[in-house]
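Hi P.,

Sorry for the delay on this. The queue was packed all week, but I finally got your sequence through. Input first:
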Amino acid sequence: MAALTDWLDNPALTDYVNGDDTLVRYFLKAASVATDITPVNIYGVQEVSPDAVKYGIEEEIYHSGGGRTKIKRRPEFTVNIPIFASRVDTFVGAIHSQVFGSSSSYYANVLTFDDVPRINLEIVYRLPDMTHVGSLVLCNLIPQDFTPGSKTGNQIVQVPFYSRFIPVKLAAGARCVLDKFNGDGSITTFTLSQTPLNLMDMDVGLKDEFVLDNVIYVETKSSTATVGTLVKKDITIVGTTLTFSTAPAAGTTVEVFYACAA
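Then the structure:
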């Protein structure tokens, strides 16, 4: 019998996460080929809270004598990154893969964007003593057109993004890793910089965007393509070795995004 006198005790210290201690950083998808690419910290950013995932296709299918199955396809969500107005130009310039300011001879930021994923965002939740208590990962963020208006200094500007990739929550002690390689048409194996952690059980739940239990995504992009393609089959990762059943074509960039022990 369930007791009516259960005492829950005081919340543990790890239940208190102050937004002031959160680190927000991004991986630039246009970064040059390298392994364990260093993420860029965003200064002056406020709390980042993505909207709930919605689906472009969501319907219930009836099986005669077998019940019903719900089909969900084409996930999408939006998120604003609230940042001090004084930091917007640096951030937007980086998204455009340029350094904003007179020292670099780039004097303008264009506040319109192609429909192309630009960054992976890692929101690192920490206690005041910098103990990591988990992270929220937003992949393949696509910037949306916006204007900062006349805001300056420490006023807040909302920089809008959306994504077609489901958000990922990481447990304490895990950090994101971005490795990029060049394909030459003959190489089928690539050595990752870190040992990927197992992230999820692929046999349980809705995980249409995911292929393996130890990687967030593997993406290939030809030299003539604007947007990369998520690899959905014919790959394996064992230890630090990524293997393709067919070698990526010459000139193809292979992008691997996963988590390792921090």
